[in-house]
Amino acid sequence: MTNSPLRLLVHGASGRMGGALLRLVTALPELQLVAAVSRDGVAGGAVGLPAARMDEAPDFDVAIDFSLPEAFPGVLALCRSRGTALVCGTTGLSDAQRDSLDSAAAHIPVLWASNFSLGVAVMDMLLRHAAPLLPRWTAAMVETHHVHKKDAPSGTAITLAQAWQGAGGTAAEITSVREGEVVGEHRLRLSGPGEWLEVAHGAVDRDIFARGALAMAARLQAQPPGRYAIADLLALSACPSR
Ligand code: NAD
């Protein structure tokens, strides 16, 4: 028996991430793009809608949002009113906006992540497992990004260091390097008596974030209402029975 594809709405469709989502979704039989929403409205094999007319969007099963904080309340309200799942990668949300994700999670499945790389999600899990096994080992992170990146250390470096420390690891020292056009590299060296262990992740292009969000969409849609993290959904099948 074949399942019909999930109907996908992309919010922030004219942006860099939106463009990647629209391009990559065409290769995924489990997802069908039905609406592409942006400030001005774009079409990419779907209904192109300006944000002002978002409530006219056709029926959909799951939304992926990579937009801006000021655009985020609109897509959250739409998902709540339609009772659909929301995968959100928009960064810079205010505390109140983060709280609104928690309130919405009582009604719909919600996944927000600051980094949709599946490799980074697994690195996070590895560090959580390793920390209690390597007591008193020191941790030193080097994160390298392109010269245009304004914040340092990166949000991902902070999240990974927190994963290690939160599971009992020692405080991690973070060094930031800004070099050429490096998309992103996070290298954590753990040192114990007479030995060291290094865990590293490198990003080659931005498509990894779009791929990660698309991989999570079908998994999230199959869950009951609640707040989810990538780690909660990673082990689930990409095509849950519906
Ligand atoms: P972008 O500036 O290229 O695109 C922004 C999109 O938002 C555009 O489509 C624009 O039309 C839309 N938009 C802006 N204002 C709007 C409004 N009022 N109503 C509706 N739509 C509106 O940005 P980008 O590089 O594609 O990044 C988008 C977001 O994703 C940012 O917050 C960025 O930090 C985040 N991001 C997250 C990850 C992750 O893994 N979580 C990875 C990369 C980027």
If you had to describe this structure to a student in words, what would you say it looks like?
With 242 residues, the chain is an alpha/beta fold. The protein is 31% helix and 27% strand. Strands 3-2-1-4-5-6-11 form a 7-stranded parallel sheet, sandwiched between helices. Helix 3 links the parallel strand 5 and strand 6. The longest helix has 15 residues. It is elongated. Bound molecules: nicotinamide-adenine-dinucleotide. Nicotinamide-adenine-dinucleotide binds next to helix 1.
Mean pLDDT: 93
The radius of gyration computed from the alpha-carbon positions, rounded to a whole number of angstroms, is: 19 Å
Bound molecules: nicotinamide-adenine-dinucleotide
Largest sheet: 7 strands, parallel
Shape from CA axes? elongated
| Fraction in beta strands | 25-35%
Spatial order of the strands forming the largest sheet = 3-2-1-4-5-6-11
Count of discrete alpha- or pi-helical segments spanning 4 or more residues:
7
Termini separation: 11 Å
Number of strands: 11
Would you tell me the structural class of the helices and strands?
alpha/beta
Order of helices and strands: EHEEEHEHEHEHEEEHEH
What are the low-pLDDT stretches, counting only 5+ consecutive residues below 50?
none
Write out key terms for the chains shown.
242 residues, alpha/beta, four-stranded mixed sheet, 11 strands, binds nicotinamide-adenine-dinucleotide
